[in-house]
Amino acid sequence: MLKILKNCLYIIVSSIILCSCGGGSNGGNKTTLNKLTSITIDQAPIVNTNVGLKTKITATAHYSDNTTKPINSTELSLFSANSNIASISASIGSNEIFVVGVAAGETTITASFNGIKSNETTVQVSAATIRFISIDQGVSVFTKVGLKTKITVTAYFSDGTNRSIPSIDLNLVSRNSKVAKIVSIPGSNDIYVMGVTANKYTVITASFNNIKSSPVFVYVK
């Protein structure tokens, strides 16, 4: 009887050990590595731009579990097949990366990240010239003391197209900075007008490539 009890105890203990160790060929927790499988340029398949104009480029990483993740521009390498048509430019401080139209024509760009290269994206650079630029917020901006209002500008070209102008290329001026001043945020390329003195107004203008916008009134409540 004692011998039988010992054998039973041995079997129970052995079973516990096997279970705790994940015994058997299917036991244990297997860790599946989430591998980077490809990257894509978000602006693909075609980037349309103009001579002297910057277009922001972003890329996305694709993983083996079907998830995606934006790639930080500081970790992204971007290459132009012909820098005489379109070159690559980085923005110091904000880590953004751009393709810049150099001359009318067509070329391709590719991105790489962690040894993985994207497919080619076509860049078409138009020879159209800028007719005028305009502040998107209209003929007037209403703000308050201490409040920042983002300002954006659009360029209108001779071929009838229009494109947003990256803020880093803009020169925004307030006629009276004691009423409303121009401010930016470190680490960002965005540009703002901020109210300084209540119940006053002034005007702001934008310029790009020596072309100036019409004035916009800024009213500070």
Q: List SSEs in N-to-C order.
A: HEEEEEEEEEEEEEEEEEEEEEE
Which structural class do the helices and strands define?
Answer: mainly beta
Overall mean pLDDT? 87
Rg on CA atoms, Å = 29 Å
Distance linking N and C termini = 97 Å
**Portion in beta strands:** over 45%
Continuous helix count? 1
Largest sheet report: 5 strands, mixed
Label the overall shape: globular
Task: Give the % helix.
Answer: under 10%
Low-confidence stretches: 16-21
Number of strands: 22
Keywords:
single chain; 221 residues; mainly beta; five-stranded mixed β-sheet; 1 helix
In short:
This protein has 221 residues and is mainly beta.
Structure, described:
The protein is mainly β and 221 residues long. It contains 1 helix and 22 strands. It has one helix at 2-20, and strands at residues 36-41, 46-50, 54-56, 59-63, 68-70, 77-80, 86-90, 97-101, 105-113, 116-117, 121-126, 130-135, 140-143, 148-150, 153-157, 162-164, 171-174, 180-184, 191-195, 200-208, 211-212, 216-220. A hairpin with a 6-residue loop joins strand 7 (86-90) and strand 8. The longest helix has 19 residues, at 2-20. The protein is globular.
